Amino acid sequence: MDFLAPFIEVYTPEHFKFLLEGFGVTLKVAAISIVLSFIIGGLIGTLRYARIPVVSQLLVLIVETIRNLPLLLIIFFTYFALPEIGIEMEITTAAIAALTVFESAMLSEIIRSGLNSIEKGQIEAGRASGLNYIQTLRYIIMPQALRRMVPPIVSQFISLLKDTSLAVVIALPDLLHNGQIIYAQKGSYVIPVFVIVALMYFIVNYALSLVARRLELKQS
Amino acid sequence: MDFSILTTNMDSFLEGLKITIIASLIALLGSFILGTLLAVMRIAPFKPLNWLGTAYVEFIRNIPVLVIVFFAYLAGNFGGMTAGTIGLTIYTAAFIAEAIRAGIMSVPRGQMEAARSTGLTYGQAMRMVILPQAIKIVIPPLGNQFINLVKNSSLLAVVAGGDLMYQGDLISAKTYVTFDTYVFVALFYLILTIPLSLGVGYLEKRLARSH
Pick from A81, A120, B78, B83: most CB atoms within 10 A? Predict the structure, then answer.
């Protein structure tokens, strides 16, 4: 019974409410970041796909640099280093900015490979029928590519939901952070708190991964 | 850029780099062993093993690595570096298990039947016939996981694991120069990850051509 006592102490309605509030922050930050990353990553991916000289090479350099850095470093950098050059953000904004920078680089690769997966002959056909390059991309290539991109984008959103937890290092009041506040009260609270925090992440991410898998099956 | 940050703290940067490399290599080896075991469990002809392997992979893949690292640090009686490396191993094993399972599934079924009919046991057939062929397909995704490990090893900083990120934090706290310090930390990471990325890219292309 001694083993179960801390579980009973921790699992109170107040604590659940507090954890759910934190999860709300996690979901909000992740949702805003994925939307921004989709826009920025979409732009970068399309520009790289179009192989515009100089711009393309510059984007490769930026995307590869970001993709090869730890996200934790980008978060630290955004919150602690940028103020030195006059860019100051409050915690939530900094978290969203850092996640967006990192995820835009990831998403741009997904979008570029999605565009690349559409046969090149389609561009020629589009052009031959009198559409210009932009119109061909917009009406012929994009709609087909977007459909193929949905499963990897859902997977990327799962990564993002998990990665949001890293923002506890700048004290973003997310699920993990609120869990930390609860287990800081008493040493024996650590295991019960981690069990419930892990389960909350798991339920949402697992549900999303099932969605991604179903979408993938539907396409193949 | 203040290069004196780099020169006067070179020892700390290199010490951090060393810990980052050691922790990543140990975690890679550990998660390769654990991941292979999990992959074999998931396809073994024994249902309870399948369930156990699947439960591990699905649970671990869907929770943040930081949660696992904190848990290893707080629930176990380890130092930061050990706890961090254990956490990374537990997490990465789930991804490596999936990569290896995909590799094993890519070997035609007939190979297992042929091996069994020559008198090998299931374990022998797996070890001597299936796994050596699967490994070729598994190497590029393993390389990707290693890159992720090097990047994720920065989480050691959160449990005072002494890695590159941690040393960077110490240096910036000591010198009050955060921007330049983090730029140098970033360069050290890129020295490790860019060659790895290029190598994996090359292997992926070569494998794609051989199919």
Answer: B83
